[in-house]
Write a structure and sequence with these properties.
The structure holds two protein chains of two kinds. By secondary structure, chain A is an alpha+beta fold. Chain A is built from 24 helices and 24 strands. In chain A, a hairpin with a 2-residue loop joins β20 and β21. Chain B has a single domain, classed as Arc Repressor Mutant, subunit A (Orthogonal Bundle). Classes of the chains: A alpha+beta, B alpha+beta.
Chain lengths: ~900, ~110
């Protein structure tokens, strides 16, 4: 038993009165002697004071010296006691290895999960944006309510008019960027490379105000034709391709075959509008009207704006909507685009991931909570067996506060040790996440465990320690302590302690229900997403993305190149067939328009409905494994032959319901186009997205530079990737290749975020389930051991086995049911927040709830079964003799 | 009136107090009295400085105090020297001795 007795510390008033008394004694003694030397009483007093010197100063000085001494003593005593407590805590935790191991393991999981998710939230949601005063920057969308388009982009004439008319914005800028789509070919000085690039308008840099680390951004007059061969290159490109050479600024590089002057190098943290990194920013004016349409119907510019001081996004939205309404009235060839959507730039960047992240934060919070409840329950059970030991300490002079402090020290030591393990887990988890899930997260570049994350870990460890330690500590040091000392026997847990543990078990079950419900919903949503028929075959399909080089400048040259490209790949051994589309599924939506814009005159329904247009090669549908009714494009469909369409079933349903339109001739403007085939619906924009009515054109009649080539292979498609690449380069050594992947990987990438969410919530749900079951098991096992005698008597009096079973399992089920009811209500309320991240299932899905409850009750039954078996095995004779 | 004694004087007061207490525990008045008697009245430590020194020494752990009763049966605070205090006293005395003899080697060369 460590020494816990100590002198009580002197209070401030005690220190003061002692100094007073000491000085008074001195003055009195001195005055007495003076009187004995013959001075009068009043003279003696005055002389004594005079001789003493400055009494008041001395009084203050002595008091402050005494106070300092007292404080030092106090500090030393606390330090000594804490050392004692820690040593004691260590010994006591070591003497209960089972408890310690469970507590440490669950804490490590709980704290580690929280630290890991916090790292992600910090990197993605809390990191400052690399813009000056980002709070004033907004994203602006062009809206076409009649076509159901809420997040549309602007045409250049509309953009210019809005930019010129807005009075509330300090500056407005725009860009044309599509991940993996907008790019430039860098040639000369090494292997040809396809760069990711943003094409920016005047005002882009003035609005965002990024700081280049070298040189400058593109100046206002450099957007004018004749001066616009300028480029700001990204930090990554500068390092990768130019070895960080500072003399790059002012030098000339070749992009798309044209000389561009490098005016600046961007700082590494700025990649807007890309999520992770971008190679180049050039003026959008570089691409003339023949490359990108500049009419009001050609929407391609994304808008950002810097608001003037004090301007709210809503006020700005009203202004822009007004301008757009006016424009749509003045230009009848551009109907419907009459309102604007505005969001803060932060929301536009992280909006998608915000909700899933908050769901994860809530889930890990609950995991930690359930961990704390579990440990609190274990501590309560432990306290009852430790009551004797604590009582002895109390008898030896340890006060209530002292015992509470000692027990709390134990909890904090446990929590911090768990937190240390948790930090290690988080480190591993975050590295794995950054490596595998990084692409799913904007600004994941800053994803790592650093000092702030560690500080957070320490903080939540301490909170956890307080959460699970406080209640058991106060209880253990409570009135029961005296009783148990007086009783002097093996501590028996009172009805109150049992009730408290029961409440904790109920809380555990309730939390487990919430976690498992969230996990169940996420898992089902993911399963439904995977079960969606994409509408095409994904296995054994190699995907090669490239763009026809600029030097093939005429339609005729491009057509020849296009056809040669596909023929070259088709000759590679192991290739079954090959085809191309401007956008393969999961690779972007394609060009979108509306039926009336297109000039579709013979559509009975859906004039304003959105239509996607895809440009594909002959044999595309066969290679993709899509059923065709009628025929698909042939190489014989050329610019010299009549123009033909293939439409998908969604378009047939939308525009000509109940009509067989194969062979139908449409009048588009003045042209006549025949529908030669209807093909199965393909999920173009993602598995969870609806299929848009789509018109397919053959590239041979409408050429586009983008080629997403799909190669059907025998066996593993990746085995052919080298051969296909070499075939391409043997044909055109300067051909840049954006990426080589497989259809399966594209599809996997499209569901990666859902997979991550389902997987993480699944892990958390499982932890919740196990901890809940552990809680029930622990309580029942303890309860059976406490009720040995009672059970023994019942058995001796002839109670059937079933009655004993009912007794124990009934207790477990009772708690489970109460927990399930509370948990279900809480889950119903909380999972509502998940609705937007779920696919094909509502947040209140009854079947999921029933299944989750069934699994939990099953686990609870299992957890009750073991203690019940033990109760059955109780031999009445031994039980009655016992104790 | 000087609020703080001079450095040399303060050190001297400390060593005088420690020496006095090395014989037996005493209260402040008795310490002052004894110093006066032993020095034949030549060294008169100001009472204020004495008490400040006593409390300072206690804070440093060189002396400790306890309440007791005097011969005249009055409550008084008695100071006693600690082990650390004795060590300090030996060091200080040795230092003073060296200091004074060095001083006199200059003032009165043999």
């Amino acid at each position: 038993m460590p020494r816990s007795f100590r002198f009580p510390f002197r209070s401030r008033s005690r220190i003061e009165s002692e100094v007073d008394e000491e000085l008074a004694f001195h003055l009195a003694a001195m005055a007495e002697r003076l009187r004995s030397e013959g001075w009068s009483a009043s003279e003696a007093d005055a002389m004594a004071r005079r001789q003493f010197g400055d009494v008041e100063y001395t009084r203050q000085y002595c008091r402050s010296e005494d106070t300092r001494r007292e404080q030092e003593k106090h500090r030393m005593a606390i330090a000594e006691e804490t050392t004692q407590d820690l040593r004691y805590a260590f010994r006591s935790l070591r003497s209960a290895p089972g408890f310690t191991l469970i507590a440490l393991a669950t804490l490590a999981l709980g704290i580690g999960a929280n630290a890991a998710i916090f790292s992600v939230v910090r990197a993605v949601l809390l990191q400052p944006l690399p813009f000056a005063t980002p709070d004033r920057i907004v994203r602006v969308w062009d809206q076409n309510p009649s076509a159901g388009i809420e997040e549309g982009v602007f045409s250049e004439p509309d953009f210019n008019d809005v930019r010129a008319s807005s009075k509330l914005a300090e500056s407005i800028g725009g860009y044309f960027f599509a991940d993996g789509q907008t790019g430039l070919d860098l040639t000369g000085n090494g292997t040809p490379e396809r760069l990711s690039a943003a094409l920016v308008t005047p005002g882009f840099f003035e609005t965002l105000r990024p700081r280049p680390i070298l040189g400058r951004v593109i100046a206002a007059d450099e957007h004018e034709v004749g001066h616009n061969r300028v480029v700001v290159i990204g930090y990554g490109l500068w390092q990768r391709r130019f070895a960080g050479n500072p003399r790059i600024v002012g030098s000339t590089i070749t992009l798309n075959g044209d000389p561009f002057t490098v005016v600046g190098v961007m700082s590494p943290d700025f990649a807007y509008p890309a999520a992770q990194s971008l190679d180049a920013w050039i003026p959008v004016s570089y691409f003339g009207p023949d490359a990108i349409g500049r009419v009001r119907g050609a929407h391609f510019i994304s808008m950002v704006a810097r608001l003037g001081p004090g301007i709210t996004p809503e006020r700005f939205r009203t202004e822009i909507s007004g301008i757009l309404t006016r424009l749509s009235k003045s230009y009848p060839d551009n109907p419907g685009w009459n309102s604007a959507g505005v969001k803060s730039i932060r929301e536009s960047i992280v909006g998608d991931v915000q909700r899933p992240l908050y769901v994860l934060v809530a889930a890990v919070g609950m995991v930690l909570l359930i961990t704390c409840v579990n440990i609190a329950s274990l501590l309560l059970a432990r306290a009852s067996t430790r009551q004797r030991e604590l009582a002895v300490r109390a008898a030896l002079g340890a006060g209530r506060g002292r015992i509470i402090r000692q027990l709390l020290t134990e909890s904090f030591a446990l929590a911090l040790a768990g937190g240390a393990l948790g930090a290690l887990l988080a480190y591993v988890a975050v590295r794995a996440l950054a490596a595998h899930g990084g692409a799913e997260l904007p600004s994941a570049g800053g994803l790592h465990v650093d000092g702030v994350v560690l500080a957070f870990t320490v903080l939540i460890s301490l909170i956890a320690g307080l959460l699970f330690g406080a209640m058991p500590a106060f209880r253990a040091a409570g009135p029961a302590l005296e009783r148990s000392l007086r009783a002097g026997t093996r501590g028996s847990v009172g009805a109150q302690g049992q009730r408290m543990r029961s409440a904790l078990v109920v809380a555990e079950v309730a939390l487990a229900v919430v976690l498992a419900a969230g996990a169940g919903l996420a898992a089902k949503s993911f399963a439904r997403l995977l079960a969606v028929n994409p509408g095409f075959d994904t296995s054994n399909r190699l995907v090669v993305e490239l763009h026809i080089p600029d030097r093939y400048s005429t339609e005729q040259m491009m057509r020849v190149y296009y056809q040669r490209m596909l023929a070259t790949i088709a000759r590679v051994p192991g290739v079954v067939s090959v085809a191309s589309s401007k956008n393969l599924p999961m690779q972007g939506a394609g060009e979108s328009t509306t039926a009336d814009r297109l000039g579709l005159q013979d559509v009975p329904t859906g004039q304003g409905a959105p239509v996607q247009i895809q440009f594909v090669s002959p044999g595309y549908f066969k290679t993709m494994g899509v059923p065709v009714q009628g025929r698909e494009f042939e190489w014989t469909d050329r610019d010299s032959t009549p123009e033909v369409f293939v439409i998908n079933q969604a378009a047939a349903r939308r525009f000509w319901p109940g009509e067989n339109v194969v062979g139908k001739v449409l009048h588009i403007g003045k042209e006549q186009v025949q529908i030669v085939g209807i093909v199965g619906d393909m999920r173009q924009r993602g598995l969870g997205e609806p299929v848009d009515p789509t018109l397919y054109l053959t590239a041979m009649q409408n050429m586009r530079v983008g080629m997403d080539i799909v190669v059907r292979t025998q066996g593993d498609p990746l085995n052919l990737s080298r051969a296909v690449r070499n075939a391409i380069w043997s044909m055109e050594p300067n051909q840049t290749i954006v990426k080589v992947t497989t259809m399966d990987l594209l599809l996997g990438g499209a569901v990666a975020r859902q997979r991550l969410l389902a997987w993480l919530l699944g892990v958390f749900g499982f932890i919740g389930l196990v901890l809940g079951a552990l809680g029930i098991y622990g309580l029942l096992a303890f309860s059976v051991s406490q009720r040995r005698q009672e059970i023994g008597v019942r058995t001796a009096l002839g109670a059937p086995r079933s009655a004993v079973l009912r007794l124990v399992i009934g207790q477990g089920m009772m708690l489970t049911i109460v927990g399930v009811v509370i948990g279900s209500i809480a889950a119903r309320l909380l999972t509502r927040q998940m609705q937007t991240v779920l696919f094909g299932i509502t947040s209140g899905d009854v079947i999921t709830f029933v299944e989750v409850i069934a699994v939990l009750v099953g686990a609870a039954l299992l957890a009750s079964w073991v203690p019940a078996r033990r109760a059955l095995a109780i031999d009445p004779a031994t039980a009655l003799r016992y104790d | 009136m000087a609020r703080e004694s001079l450095g040399l004087l303060q050190g001297t007061v400390d060593v005088l107090i420690l020496k006095t207490l090395s014989w037996k525990p005493l209260h402040g008045y008795a310490v002052a009295d004894l110093i006066r008697q032993r020095s034949g009245g030549d060294l008169a430590v100001e009472d204020a400085a004495l008490y400040q020194a006593l409390h300072r020494l206690e804070r440093k752990g060189l002396v400790e105090s306890e309440w007791g009763t005097t011969d005249g049966n009055r409550r008084a605070r008695f100071y006693s020297i600690t082990a650390d205090g004795r060590k300090q006293l030996r060091t200080n005395v040795a230092e003073l001795r060296r200091y004074v003899s060095a001083l006199f080697r200059v003032l009165e060369p043999a």
